[in-house]
Amino acid sequence: MYEGINNLVKSWHDELDIHHAENATVSGDCCRWDGVKCNEETGHVIGLDLSSSCLYGTFPCNSTLFSLNHLRELDLSKNNFNYSKIPSDIGRLPSSQISTSPSSFLSGQIPSEISKLSSLSFHYLSINEDPTGVNEKLNLKLNDLSLERLVNNLSRLTHLYLDMVDISSEVPLSLSNRTSLKAISLGFCDLLGEFPTSLLLPKLKEISLIYNPELGGYLHEFHSNSPLCILDLCGTKFCGELPSSIGNLTDLIVLGLAHNYFSELPQSIMNLTHLNRLYLSNMVDVGNAGILKSWLSKLNLLTDLMLSKMNLGIEIMPTLSNFTRLHFLSLQNNLLTEPLPSWLMNLTQLGALDLLGNQFQGPIPPWISYLINLHTLTLSFNGTVDKFDPFFMLPKLRYLKLTGVSLTFPQNICTNSSLLKLHILSLESCNLTEFPKFLRCQDELRELYLPGTSLGISHNGFSFAGNLALCGAPLFEKCKKDIVPPSPPQQLTNDEMTEEDIELIDWIIISLGCVSGFIIGYVLGKIYVADRHHDWFMETFGRRRRSETRMRRSTQRHRRN
After folding, report:
1. Which of 160, 222, 412, 425 keeps 20 to 30 A from 537, CA to CA?
2. Contact 326/304 with Cβ under 8 angstroms?
3. Which among 401, 436, 446 is positioned nearest to 416, based on CA atoms?
4. Where are the alpha helices (DSSP H) in 262-413?
5. pLDDT of 486-505, one tens digit each?
6. Integer Cα distance of 147 and 475 in angstroms
């Protein structure tokens, strides 16, 4: 296929030798071809957009693509280069804008030659991780070149997107010398050390550093005329006080502070009224509830809202009743009780609803079937007894986690479950007495979790800890009324349910919320919802979470010794 690219590029040279752009025919004028942009006066090819062109295979090192001496813009995103390396000949291009992502599937070290593109202004090499999640060697890396060397040579850089590129170093202070920078996006890069506060440059419109758990820092004062639109620090370890000058960021549309070490919201934060994505967590100061209640009433444009571990009571709920644009809502691990409020049925755009870790009273409301766009749902109840039936009416639901509810299931095995096509099901402390028969018809079910707190049994990759009375296939214990035990779903990878596995399921929700505020999260969310690379999503986040846990346990053992 890439021989075709070479022939195509060669034909542009041939055509331009014969035809000038002014008198070329439609069939002979490559400047009229889709994705090709030419200089109107000279006819030289100055822009090439091959995004979403169904290109597949190894990128040739000697591609004639690099002979386009006047090329200013190159977009190879949304193709599959089968984990080939970025050719070093890329340094021959005069391009001012290069984009190879998302989902270009390149791998290996980013060549040092790319730093020779001194006129480069838009650098986009993000989201290239191995979708199987099992071979880190397939990821793009910047270790040899180093972020500092790259930035030092790119004097005209305005946009830097390196999400999911393995950097594994500190953010260089020299980056603050690039005063022309408008966007910095370095999510999932394994950044280390402390983020330089001087990098909050006067022209910066976007800064996204999500899920760099070893990256710390502080927020300093913000200028009153700051054009910042996106500030997303979810999953880092920033700490200290939020400066009152954060209220100066009136153009902000995305604010992500979840899973950091901030504690108190300043009153001035209520000036931020144009937000459409807000992610907060772990702020347990009692004064935050009052500020949130007043502030949220002004945020009429919200599509994503995370308020997990915020020590919020049921009084916050009416404030959310008018957020009909919400696609994502997480109120995980708060102090919410009473029945689920009926106004939730009006949030028909919801794709993900996360109410885990609360103490809602039953029953499971029948109106939950109105939320037909839900793909992800987690609910915690306090001793509720109810039927599973309302969930059968959610055709897009793929991930369901319920805790603290004693469930009964229909005996009509497949009829009621024809709409529901679950991929992940977790029923924790649900007092199951037999294996749910409807799962026999869930032919897309990939993972099943039935954890508890007491000893249980494991069989064929399924975990049933805590459900001591559980019977029916795939268990050895047959139910008395069953003549033929139902068949198990097809796959589940772990033989035992561990604390890390439970955390991983919850982290899916958290990650979807945190990262959906900008391009990397948007793509991850779409990948998960569409289930094209669900295994990659699970394995990628699971690998990192488990790595952190192992490191933490190793440190604890070392201290004891």
Report:
1. 160
2. yes
3. 436
4. 287-296
5. 333 333 333 343 444 444 44
6. 53
Task: Flag whether 527 is in a domain.
Answer: yes
Dihedral of the CA atoms 291, 297, 302, 305 (nearest 10)? Answer: 40
Contact 355, 339 (CB under 8 A): no
| Total domain count, the chain | 1
Furthest-apart CA pair in the chain: how many Å?
A: 85
Q: Which amino acid is at 500?
A: E
Q: Are 199 and 220 in contact (CB under 8 A)?
A: no
Tell how strand 376-387 and strand 458-459 pair up: unpaired
Contacts of residue 237, Cβ cutoff 8 Å, sequence gap at least 6? 213, 214, 215, 216, 260, 261
The values of phi and psi at residue 270, to 5°, are -70, -5
Nearest-angstrom CA–CA distance, 92 and 70 = 11
Least confident of 83-97, 274-288, 450-464: 450-464
Task: Decide: 456 and 466 in contact? Cβ < 8 Å.
Answer: yes
CA distance 171 to 162: 12
Range of the domain at 538: 499-560
| CA nearest to 507, candidates 545, 469, 534, 480 | 545
Residue 249 has pLDDT above 70, yes or no: yes
Calpha distance 544→547 (Å, rounded): 5
pLDDT tens-place string over residues 167-187: 999 999 888 888 888 999 999
Q: Position of tokens 């006067």? A: 202
Kindly list the distances between the CA atom of residue 375 and the CA atoms of 163, 325, 372, in Å, as whole numbers in the listed order: 25, 16, 9
Q: How far apart are CA 266 and CA 255, in angstroms?
A: 14
Q: Sign of the C-alpha dihedral, residues 438, 440, 446, 449? A: positive
pTM, to two decimals: 0.77
Q: Which pLDDT score is estimated for 378?
A: 94
Closest CA to 507 of 429, 395, 426, 420: 426
Distance CA 190, CA 171 (A): 10
Quote the CA–CA distance of 121 and 118 in Å, as a whole number.
Answer: 8
Q: Other C-beta atoms within 10 Å of 379: how many?
A: 21
- How far apart CA 437 and CA 472 sit, in angstroms, is 9
